[in-house]
Amino acid sequence: MTQVKPAPGGRMLTVLRVHLPSEIPIVGCEITPYVLLRRPDGGIFTDDVPEASAVDGYFMRYKWYRIQSDRRAAVCSVHPTEQATLQCIGCLKSKIPVAKSYHCSAKCFSDAWQHHKVLHERAISALNENGTEEEELFGRFGSGSSSSGIISAALSGSTPNLSQSSGANNGPTPVYPTGTEKSSGETWFEVGCSRTYTATADDIGHALRFECVVVDLETRGTMGAPTSVMTSRVIPAPTPTPRRLIPVNAADAMGHFDLDNRTSSFGTFTVLSYNILADTYATSDTYSYCPTWALSWAYRRQNLLREIIGYHADIICLQEVQNNHFEEFFAPELDKHGYQALYKRRTTEVYAGSPQAIDGCATFFRRDRFSHVKKYEVEFNKAAQSLTDAIIPAAQKKLALNRLVKDNIALIAVLEAKFGNHGTENPSKRQLLCVANTHINIHHDLKDVKLWQIHTLLKGLEKIAVSADIPMLVCGDFNSIPGSTSHGLLAMGKVDQMHPDLPVDPLGILRPLSKLTHQLPLVSAYSSFARMASVGYDLDHQRRRMDPATNEPLFTNCTRDFTGTIDYIFYTADSLTVESLLELLDEDSLRKDTALPSPEWSSDHIALLAEFRCTPRVRR
């Protein structure tokens, strides 16, 4: 039994307040409670006070408990904060992960059927490839277009007992030699003794309790009763249906590739482009339809990392990566997976927030596939200053800079492939690759600024192309829809001089219009879905997710306020060919009546990924 030592004069370290960043803990996501403390001298602070850094003879002791009852609750796979009442028989028979089989109501199951049936279709495909008859396991409901013919079974009681469910498999209950208490039919298992805790699969369906107490360094006695806070039941991390690589070359157009079991073949490489939605922009005001816990950075960063790593890309181009998140999370985490990192943060002439919270572009590449040759940084603010000095009268410079200076940047990396140049005319020649990663200005009423930024970037890339015989990739969030002047410049090498957007040019920065050209043979990678002459289920399915008028995806950004395509991967078609593309999402892939971000997808953008092969340059 610990002793409580009275503090002289009542002056000691004191806990003022404890609360959690989110009441709903998710498996795999670190929980760090907010603990407000008062020093003996009256100062208020939130830093940790471990035994090694005691404050005036006091330190903090923490404990985490799992509150476990005899009855465990299954969790709905669609609404993870709800208990499940239905279980899909088809999932159990096909050995789909049991967590995906649960639903909270018949309506939930019916609404999710278009998304859920994809799990069955893929399980059928896998079983058929392994020689198992479709009818044997799926019978009447394997290929149905609706959920009629009941494939869900009611679980007994409103709080189903997983131990009695034939499909339940949550692993053995751990035995803790110490820190176990039983009270009122509940058992408290001590699961952690630090300030932070990461929920595990064993915690699913159970609440957690966090306790903290001040301890006297000399006597080891606690100073009063612990301060505690409870969580809701732990839920599993929602897992979206994996996206596959769809071949678009003539040889493989009838098949598909499983990303989990695929690496780039010799002479090919994969490139991912993804705006991950910076935490500073992920507010409940903007994304009120997304649960608060799913907007928290503690959850989103783990979900994003799982998704990004799962694509196994050789080159990764990310946008909206906060400076602190790059340094403290993405760079070290991706380093563990063999990636080298390059980063360029946005400039700060306009930005007024914390320097650590400013976002930028990050490019990663696998060390075993590429080596770094050179890095270029494009600051459009500097280009704006040079432009105004050259063409804007002195009296109008301030007004011009207010319109042009938006802190946008681009990061250009020249890489050398380590997989050689075999199969080309000169196999001993170094195989270089230029990768541009950019985030163009977002403001819809500044179309002239968008076009000027993209033209500036392309002119810079032209200079690199002149100096070296080098394939190029231009990736990023261009904040420009298909059919815009910016998209036309990228895809066609020029703009339609009769385009209705062009008259909006108050500074005259686009004049003469004849200068709005470039000589790079750029093609949008995803237009390959529309241009392929081959037929097949996968290609036809993807074509339905394309806009036939523009040969671009129907959307890459999907919120309640906007749904459209603004993200692209462009490539030089005279030196690269597209081998395969990451399948697109459609409305059935998202939860009904929702948008992005969501518990499954942690950005308001979708990731784009293309596999390329270097080819002998076509001489014009």
Walk me through the structure.
The protein is α+β, with helices and mostly antiparallel strands and 620 residues long. Helix 10 links the parallel strand 21 and strand 22 (472-477). Helix 8 (380-391) packs antiparallel against helix 9 and helix 10 (447-467) packs parallel to helix 11. The protein is globular. It starts with 13 loop residues before the first strand and ends in a 6-residue tail after the last strand. Residues 1-9, 132-152, 156-178 and 251-255 have low confidence and may be disordered. Belongs to the CCR4/nocturin family. Residues 272-605 form the Endonuclease/exonuclease/phosphatase domain. It holds the Pfam family Exo_endo_phos.
Main sheet record:
7 strands, mixed
Structural class: alpha+beta
Tally of alpha and pi helices:
13
**Mean pLDDT level:** 85
Morphology:
globular
CA-CA gap between termini: 86 Å
Low-confidence stretches: 1-9, 132-152, 156-178, 251-255
Radius of gyration: 28 Å
In spatial order, strands of the major sheet run 14-29-30-15-16-18-17
Strand content: 25-35%
